[in-house]
Structures are given as structure tokens and as C-alpha cells.
UniProtKB/TrEMBL annotation:
ATP binds at G349, P350, N351, A352, G353, G354, K355, T356. Its EC number is 3.1.-.-, 3.6.4.-. Keywords: ATP-binding, Coiled coil, DNA-binding, Endonuclease, Hydrolase, Nuclease, Nucleotide-binding, RNA-binding, rRNA-binding. Residues 721-796 form the Smr domain. This is Endonuclease MutS2. InterPro entries: DNA_mismatch_repair_MutS_C (IPR000432), DNA_mismatch_repair_MutS_core (IPR007696), DNA_mismatch_repair_MutS_sf (IPR036187), MSSS (IPR046893), MutS (IPR045076), MutS2 (IPR005747), P-loop_NTPase (IPR027417), Smr_dom (IPR002625). Residues 777-796 are annotated as: Disordered.
Amino acid sequence: MIPTDTLLRLEFDKVLQAVARHARSRTTAAAVAAMAPLRDSTAIRTHWGRIEEIRGLARQRISLSIGRFDDIRPLLDEVRPDGAILAPLSLLQFIPVLESLAALARQLAPRQDIPLLRSIDPQPEAMDDILEPLSATLDDEGNILDSASRELAEIRRAKRTLAARVRRKLEEIVRKHETAIFLQDDFITIRSGRWVIPVRMDSKGMVPGVVHDVSSSGETAFMEPLEIIPFVNELENLTAEEKAEEIRILRRLSAWIREDADRIAACFGTLVELDRLDCLAAYAERFAMAVPELSDDGRLRLLSARHPLLLSLRADQPDAPPVVPLEIELTTGTETPERETSQVIVISGPNAGGKTIALKTVGLITLMALSGMAIPASPSSTVPLLDHLLVDMGDEQSIEQSLSTFSAHAAAMARILGQADQRSLVLLDELGTGTEPLQGAAIGCAVLNELRRRGALVIATTHLTEIVGFVQRTPAMRNAGMEFDSSTWTPRYRLVMGEPGQSHALETARRYGLPEPVLAFARELLGDSGTAFAGVIDELRVKRDHLATELAGLQAERARLATRERELEQQRGELEELRRTVIEQGRDEARAVVTATRRELNALLDDLRKERRKETADKLRNRAAQLEAAFAPSGQAPPSGDSLKPGDRVHVRSLGRDAQVVSVDSGRNKVRVRAGSIELEVPLHGLMQPAAPAPSARERKAPRFKAAAWTAEETPSAAELNLIGKRVDDALTELEGFIDQAVLAGQRQVRIVHGMGSGALQRAVREFLGRHPQVASFRAGEPHEGRDGATVAELE
């Protein structure tokens, strides 16, 4: 439990007041004001998650359906005794509560993206059995409506009818000449609940009736004529019946609320909790706050942190300068060079330069985070889970307790040392002040050393150079300074890690009006030591600025290289896509050419069977030459006629396979080749170097076709094709090429293996064979050939 005086000293109550401005009820505002840091990491993370779920709904333009409402818990206590009746205005306070609960139930129940809000127990519940009668009974001012009951509606209707009858009767009396001459005026009014007319005091005996009132001047008597007394008495009876019916209605409504008092009270607690969370979400959204990480290993890391109260102040003053962000990092243990973190940080610098604000910013943001609130810092920030937040800040001197400033600081440091451990954050303002500087610095150094030994995280401010020097020499401790503009002698309020700040007391005194002769005398007394120290600090600052400039340049270069890398990656992707597109187009075009050529080849073979050999051979040669020229590769020259001799192996592009040279006709640039059992004449440009060594005798004796493509290793004696596992379209394309090659190789019988499966591939293969011009007949395979899983075709 963090003491209340620590919360007040860090102005946590003012932050809660700013949050409570978003509340819809005083009950919620009180719940916000009662918030305090939590020690359960699960509870803290749950609070953060629920706030982020509400902010997520807000980004979808969905706000929690909560209207303004009052605290109904005292009314629930009032109605619990049997027979208790709530007044209409008391009952009226239940309507906004029940309406908000019903709206929340409809809003939250169907959603699956808010699991943490849905885990609040109990969930908001629509109590229409109470809300509807209340809404039908009371208007906005707490009056009971005619719709409250049928009996009440009939009574009030009768009252209105009778009242209208009384008024008409009175108007008749007023208009009568024998009565009008005695009236002070001709209006009708009600006095003491009775209908009366104004009669002159000196004539009241002339009008039969009962006097109910007299004017303040004594000149007018307000009389109830005898003629209307029976009607007015009946009206009074109806009024009594109306009152009795209203009491009965209120008793019934109170009884219904009494029956569900526990359920209403529980749901009211949920309503207050949702309103509180909505206040925290609205406050976080207003200042773009973020949820940090929660550290169990004692690490504090605040990035782009800003004091929340300064943010509120700047929001109310648009012309004010922006809040300078704070970045600070602490961790238990020794300094980590690569992350430049320490366990103890001592901030020095000028008065009014922002040291105490930096201290309060760290403390206040830590309190906010541990209370389950979003913080005004980067979401990459980390806050430690603490048992103690120990603060010595401000002048605590007390006449009543006979404490001087130093005595108060010494008592506070003793209290802090009595509680500090590895789960503590200690904030010390103006360490070592209030006594003789050397002794004060020694005590301050000793306190810092003891806190470091105990493992506490420490942030302190000081003006004493002795403490600055001690921190510079001690492991796990680090100096920091508030930046000061030497050209304008004004603070910049930016914390610079790694270098101490200068007090600049003389410049600050000049800025606040201290006379120049006084400052000159002080400068003489200060001597060279202070000037030397300031020179060292200035030299460090110049080096830091130089390194910062180089770092900015390196970061800019890194960003440029990263951009260039992304551009190159994008170009590589575009080139890869272009390559795929070109390859696909080439495949489509090649497939179209191959299909057309195969059809022409089938027609030519058909002509060949019809004995038109000469004409067919010429067409075949011309077509082959066209294809060879069209698909001639640009990277490899064909062999010359002089380099070829009978017996050489060459690759024939038109066949897609190797063949043996039979003879060379150099004059006609033609070569006669033998491929299997057929011989043909091809032009020189249709030849290439063989793709593979000549097959052995064994390979020529038992060749096999491969299902995927025709290669130089395949021989024309292949007589089997395996289509199992292929799609129908791909299988038929491959089958067509297989039959063409088999015909060229002189095969008379081939076997196509297609399997049984669903039968679709089998039917497609046999339909294709039935219409192919080179297939004379086909049949299912014999038992040793695969039965119906294969088809044997006879070729012409």
C-alpha cells in the first residue's frame, strides 16, 4: 500500500480529478477518486485490457450506452424492510440506471471481441419487468401517469369531468345578474382546496355560500356557492380515491424492487465499474496515452513520457509550447553498456530547469500504470511491479514537530532506508541540501550507495558537484542533466542522459533580476574551480552534440539504404512476375503450335497412307523447315556440313530426339538421318549437338517412354505410357504426342496404363483412341497386361 501523502505529493489526486470529469454520476467520480496502485499483476493487466477494449470500440464509433444516473444504493437499503414504500421521486432515480443496464446488455452480450469486458461479473442485465412499469408510471418530474393503472385512469377521468361541471356551474352563477352585482370580479379560483368566487365584503350576505378566505385588503371575500358544494364534496372523494390508488401503485413498484434488490445492487456495481473504465478510456484517448509493458524483473523504461497535468494545461492553452518528452531507463543490477541503463540516476541542472518535474513525471506515470491506467508515454515503455514507491520531495519543515528542513529530509531518508528493497522505486529531490554542502553531499552519497546495495531503483536530483562526481565513479550509477541554452540563458527542459547538468545559478539569478554588481562579486568569489567545472561540462556537451549529429547522419543514411533496399526488392518482385508472365505466354504459344502441328502431321500421315507420297513428303519437309526455323535457338549454332560424317549422332529438333547421320548433302544443306526404323532428310539448321551420349545396346533393346516429356534418352521402340494420377486434359495431350512418336518409331501396338479410379480417365482415353486416325483398334488389357486398368491400341 503506497501512503496517501506520497500520492498527494506526486499529485495523483489531480490526475484522478481530471479522469472523474468524464463520469456520468457522483458515484463513479467517487470510485475514480478512490483508485490506488495495485500489487497484483493480473489485475493490472486486466484493467489495461478492458480500457483498450473500450478504446477499440470507440475507434469503431461505438461508445458505451451509459446515461447520467444517481446512486440508488441508499434507496435499495430504504426499500428492503417489508412494507416500505419509495416516493415517486425516489423511484424515478431507478429508471436511468435500469435503462443504462438494458442498453449495455444489448450492446455487450453479442460481441466476441471484448472478452475482458465480458468477464466482469455480473454482466449488465435488462430488467424490463421493473423498467417498463416504472416508465409507464412516472414522468420526467416524478408525477404518476394515468397509464399507471386502469383504476387510476378512470378516477382521474371522473375528476376531470366533475371539475369541468363545477367550473361550468360557477360560470353560470357569475354571469347571473342577481349575483354579478355583488362580485368584486368575474374570475373563478380555488382557495383551501375549494372552488370560490370573489364577492365584495359588504355584500357577502347577499350571495348564499361559505366564505373560505378573505383578500389581504379585506375588501373581497372568497365564497363557495351553496349550489356547487355537493359537486365539490364528490370531487374531494375522488381525490381521496386517487391518492389511495397512487399509494397502492407505489407499494406495488416498491415490492418489485425489493424482490430484486440484490440483483439490482450487483448490476449497479457493474454499471459504476463500466462507467469508471469508460472514464479512464476517454482520458487516455484524449491525450493519446498507451498501455505499457509490466515488468516483474525491476526494469523501468519510459519513452516519450510526458507529465499528464502538463498535458491538460497545454490542452487548455493552445498557444502554450508543447510538453518536452522525457526518456529514462532504470534496471536492477550493474550497468548494461549496450542499453546504457543504471540502477541509480542523479539529475543535475539549473533551478527551474525541470528536474523536479522529471522526478514527478516518473513517479506519477508509475502510479498511473500500477493503478491500471494508460500512461502518456510510448507503448514500448515498461513499468516495474512495485511494493513501495518512496518519495522525499519538497520542504517538510515543521514548527509543531520542531523539524528544520534538513531534519525533515534526514527523517524521510531514514524512513526510506527502512523500507527500500528490490521492489522499490525511490525518488529523492534536492539530495544533500539543507545543511553544510560537504557534509550534506557525503550523507547523500552514502544514502545512494545503500539504496543501490539494497537493489532499489533510484532517481535523485541535486546541485552538489561532490554527489555528481561520486555517481560518475560508481558502478550502476549514472549522471543526467537538464539541458540549458547557453545563448539565451534559458532552460530547454530536456533530460540528457550520461552527462551532468550545470546549476547556472548566476545566470538564473540574473534572469530573475539580481543586480549585476552582486553577480560580479559572486563570480569573483566563485573563482576558477567553478569555471573549470563548467568548461568540462561544456566540452562534454560539444562532444555529445557532435556525436548526435553523426548519429543523425548515420540514421538518415540507414533510412536511405532501407528505402533503396525496398525499391530493389520491389523491382525484383516485378521482374520475377514479368519472367513468370513471359514463360507462361511462351508455354501457351508453344502448346498452341504443338497442337496445330500434331493435327497437320496426322493429316499428312493420312495422306501418306493414301499413296500421295511425293506431295505429302514435300509438305512434310516444308512444314518441318518452318517449325525448325521458328524454334531455332539463338544461343547455339547448328553443325556445318563439313563437320558431319556418316555415323555421327546429332539432335534433330523436329523429332525432339537424337538420330544417326546416314549421309550428308552439302550442296543442298541437307542431312539424311536414321531415327529408329525410319529415315528422313532434315536441313542443317534443324540439327544440334546431341544432348546426351548415344544409348547403349541394352538401352536400345529395352527403352521406356517417360510420362512427363520426350527426351534424347527415349528410343522409338517405346510402347507403353503411364497416365495414372494425371488430369484428363494433361493426359490426353501427352497421349497424343505418345501416339505420334510411336507411329514415327514404327510401333504397331502400344499399351496405355490409366488405372481404374472413377473411370473418367479410362473413358476419356478410349474415346480419344476411337477417333484418332492412326489407331486401327483398341481393347482392354489381358490379365498380364493390367485388365481394365490398361488399354492396348493397334496402330496403322
